[in-house]
C-alpha cells in the first residue's frame, strides 16, 4: 500500500496549522462545535476527511459548513454534508473524531500520519486522483472567526489532495446542503460539471412559492397584514433579502420586514434574539415590539436552519408557534390534501418528534389528525432518518424549530401518475406536487419553512390565532444546568429516561408523579457544555416548582 500524496507538504501544513493541542474533540449533535479559538486543528483534519469522503464516493461533491448556528459569537463549528445533502454518514463520525484527536494528541507528525494511513487503508480509498478528483463545496455563516477557520479547513484540499474546492462564501447552512445536493444531481443527470450556486436556490424556491399561489389562483399576498422576520443578526438576514429582491418575488415589499439584520456586527449574533432565545425565553426578541394584533413574527437562528413563529394578542400576551405548531399545521394541511386527492389510504403520512415535543401536540396529532407519531433522540439526523424511512410524507420538527418534510419516491410516482392521467382531484394533486417543491427536503431550512408556512396560512385563510387555537400547549419550561462533567448523564428510551447517574431517574419519577400531566426529562446537550432539563405540567402556577425540584436533584447527583 502506498499513500500517493506529498508527505512533506502535508507535514508542513500540519505543523503550521494545528496549534491547538491536547483537546478532546467530539462530533456531537451537529458536528464539531466549541470556542472558535480552539478549532484550528479540527478544521485541518475535517478538511482532510471531507476529501476522503468525496474520494470514497467517486469524487462526488461533499459539503462542509462552518457554523455554530444558535451558539454565541465566540463559538464556531464545522459539519460535513453527504453528496445528497444529508448529514455525514453516521459510520464516518468516529473517523472524524479519530483524525481530529490524533492531530490533537499526537506527539509527532508521524503519529498523526499513521492514523491517517490506517483510515485510508481501512476504507480502501484510492488516493490516486489522476482519474477521479475529489470535489468539495464549502460555506460559512457570518462569524468573524470563519475566514481564518476556512483557511485551516481547506489548506490541504487542493495542494495535497488535488481537490476541486468550490467556496460559496457566506451562505445559510440549508443553502450549503441544497447546493451540494443540486450539484451532484446535475452532474449525475446531465453531466454538468459546473457547481450549482446560491442563485439557483433563490430561483427555485421563489418559483415553487409562486406556483403554489398560481395553482390556487390566489393573489400573491400574505394572509397576515405583516410578517416581521428576526434574523438573529446572522447570515439569514442578507440571504433572505436577496431572495426578496429576486425579480420574480411578487409579494408586496411592505408585507415583510426584516429586523436584527446586523450580520456585520459579530457580537450581536444570537444576542437576545433569534429562534433559540425566543423559544427558550418565550418572549419577543430585542428589536421587536408588539405591533398590530394580527401581525405574525418569526425568528431564525444564526445560520437560518431553524425558525419559530409567534404573535402578541390584544392583551399583550406573547404566543409561541414553535416547531410543534409548524409540524401540526403542515400535518393538518397535507392530510386534508391527501384526503381530497383520495390518497389517504395509499400514502402514509406521519410526524416525527423528540422528547421536547409538547405533550398536547402529540395528543392532537394522534387524536385529532389521526396521524402516527414517532419519537427519536434529539439531533436532526435522527428525525430525518425516521421521517425518510417510515413515511411517504414524513413531517419532522424539533420543538426548537428545526425541521422539514420528506416526500418518498412512492409519493412522487403516485402524484405524477395521477396527474399524467388527469385522474382525481387535480387541485389537491397539484397542491401536493407544488408543496413538495417548496420544502427544502435536504435539511430543515428557516427560509423554505417560512415560505411554506406563509403559503399554508394563505391557502387555509388562517390567522395566527386560528393556527394557535388548534391545540393548547401544556405549560413548559426548559433550563440549562451547568455541571462539572455532563458526560455522566446517559440516557435511554430516545433520551426520555436517564440510566446514569444511578438512582437519579427514580427520584425524577417521584417528582413527576406529584404533578398532574407532569412530564420531565434530563439530557446532556450535544452543542453546549450544559445539561438540559425539560418539564411540563397542567398547572402553570406549579411549573417553576416542578422544574426546580428536578434541577435540585440533578445538581445534588454530581
Ligand atoms: C443543533 C442540532 C439540533 C438540536 C440543537 C440542540 O441545532 O442540529 O438537532 O436540537 O443543536 O441540541 P442540544 O440540545 O444537543 O444542544 P443547531 O441549530 O445549533 O445546529
From TrEMBL:
Domain annotation Alpha-D-phosphohexomutase C-terminal: ranges: 478-552
Occurrences of domain Alpha-D-phosphohexomutase alpha/beta/alpha (ranges): 45-90, 132-181
Keywords in alphabetical order: Isomerase, Magnesium, Metal-binding, Phosphoprotein
Cofactor: Mg(2+)
Cross-referenced InterPro entries: A-D-PHexomutase_a/b/a-I (IPR005844), A-D-PHexomutase_a/b/a-I/II/III (IPR016055), A-D-PHexomutase_C (IPR005843), A-D-PHexomutase_C_sf (IPR036900), A-D-PHexomutase_CS (IPR016066), AMG1_II (IPR049023), AMG1_III (IPR049022), PAGM (IPR016657)
Pathway: Nucleotide-sugar biosynthesis; UDP-N-acetyl-alpha-D-glucosamine biosynthesis; N-acetyl-alpha-D-glucosamine 1-phosphate from alpha-D-glucosamine 6-phosphate (route I): step 2/2
Coiled coil: none
Official protein name in the record: Phosphoacetylglucosamine mutase
Phosphoacetylglucosamine mutase AMG1 domain boundaries: 194-308, 322-459
CDD domains in alphabetical order: PGM3 (cd03086)
Cofactor binding note from Swiss-Prot or TrEMBL: Binds 1 Mg(2+) ion per subunit.
Amino acid at each position: 500500500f502506498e499513500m500517493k500524496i506529498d508527505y512533506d507538504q502535508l507535514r508542513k501544513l500540519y505543523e503550521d496549522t494545528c496549534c491547538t493541542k491536547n483537546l478532546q474533540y467530539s462530533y456531537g449533535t451537529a458536528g464539531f462545535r466549541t470556542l472558535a479559538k480552539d478549532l484550528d486543528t479540527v478544521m485541518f483534519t475535517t478538511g482532510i476527511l471531507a476529501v476522503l469522503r468525496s474520494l470514497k464516493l467517486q469524487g462526488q461533491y461533499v459539503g462542509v459548513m462552518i457554523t455554530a448556528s444558535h451558539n454565541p459569537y465566540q463559538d464556531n463549528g464545522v459539519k460535513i454534508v453527504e453528496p445528497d445533502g444529508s448529514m455525514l454518514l453516521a459510520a464516518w463520525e468516529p473517523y472524524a473524531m479519530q483524525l481530529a484527536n490524533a492531530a490533537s494528541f499526537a506527539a509527532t507528525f508521524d503519529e498523526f500520519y499513521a492514523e491517517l494511513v490506517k483510515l485510508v487503508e481501512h476504507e480502501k480509498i484510492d488516493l490516486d486522483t489522476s482519474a477521479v478528483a475529489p470535489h468539495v463545496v464549502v460555506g460559512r455563516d457570518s462569524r468573524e472567526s470563519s475566514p481564518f477557520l476556512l483557511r485551516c479547513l481547506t489548506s490541504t484540499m487542493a495542494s495535497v489532495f488535488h481537490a476541486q474546492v468550490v467556496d460559496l462564501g457566506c451562505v445559510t447552512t440549508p443553502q450549503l446542503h441544497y447546493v451540494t445536493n443540486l450539484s451532484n444531481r446535475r452532474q449525475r443527470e446531465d453531466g454538468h460539471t459546473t457547481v450549482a450556486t446560491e442563485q439557483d436556490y433563490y430561483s427555485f424556491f421563489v418559483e415553487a412559492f409562486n406556483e403554489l399561489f398560481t395553482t390556487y389562483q390566489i393573489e400573491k399576498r400574505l394572509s397576515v397584514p405583516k410578517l416581521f422576520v428576526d434574523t438573529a443578526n446572522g447570515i439569514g438576514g442578507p440571504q433572505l433579502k436577496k431572495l426578496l429582491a429576486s425579480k420574480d418575488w411578487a409579494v408586496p415589499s411592505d408585507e415583510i420586514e426584516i429586523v436584527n439584520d446586523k450580520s456585520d456586527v459579530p457580537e450581536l449574533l444570537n444576542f437576545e434574539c433569534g429562534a433559540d432565545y425566543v423559544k427558550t425565553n418565550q418572549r419577543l426578541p430585542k428589536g421587536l415590539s408588539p405591533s398590530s394584533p394580527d401581525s405574525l413574527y418569526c425568528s431564525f437562528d444564526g445560520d437560518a436552519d431553524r425558525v419559530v413563529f409567534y404573535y402578541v394578542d390584544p392583551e399583550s400576551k406573547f404566543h409561541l408557534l414553535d416547531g410543534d405548531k409548524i409540524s401540526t399545521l403542515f400535518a393538518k394541511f397535507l392530510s386534508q390534501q391527501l384526503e381530497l386527492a383520495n390518497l389517504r389510504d395509499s400514502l402514509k403520512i406521519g410526524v416525527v418528534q423528540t422528547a421536547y415535543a409538547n405533550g398536547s401536540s402529540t395528543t392532537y396529532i394522534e387524536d385529532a389528525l389521526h396521524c402516527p407519531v414517532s419519537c427519536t433522540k434529539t439531533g436532526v439526523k435522527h428525525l430525518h432518518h425516521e421521517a425518510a424511512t417510515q413515511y411517504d410524507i414524513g413531517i419532522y420538527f424539533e420543538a426548537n424549530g428545526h425541521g422539514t418534510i420528506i416526500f418518498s419516491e412512492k409519493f412522487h410516482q403516485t402524484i405524477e401518475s395521477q396527474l399524467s392521467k388527469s385522474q382525481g382531484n387535480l387541485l389537491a394533486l397539484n397542491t401536493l406536487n407544488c408543496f413538495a417543491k417548496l420544502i427544502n427536503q435536504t435539511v430543515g431550512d428557516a427560509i423554505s419553512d417560512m415560505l411554506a408556512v406563509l403559503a399554508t396560512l394563505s391557502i387555509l385563510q388562517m390567522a395566527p390565532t386560528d393556527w394557535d387555537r388548534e391545540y393548547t400547549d401544556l405549560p413548559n419550561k426548559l433550563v440549562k444546568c451547568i455541571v462539572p462533567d455532563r458526560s455522566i448523564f446517559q440516557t435511554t428510551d430516545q433520551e426520555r429516561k436517564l440510566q446514569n447517574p444511578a438512582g437519579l431517574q427514580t427520584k425524577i419519577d417521584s417528582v413527576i408523579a406529584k404533578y398532574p400531566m407532569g412530564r420531565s426529562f434530563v439530557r446532556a446537550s450535544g452543542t453546549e457544555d450544559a445539561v438540559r432539563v425539560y418539564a411540563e405540567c397542567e398547572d402553570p402556577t406549579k411549573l417553576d416548582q416542578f422544574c426546580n425540584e428536578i434541577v435540585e436533584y440533578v445538581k445534588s447527583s454530581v
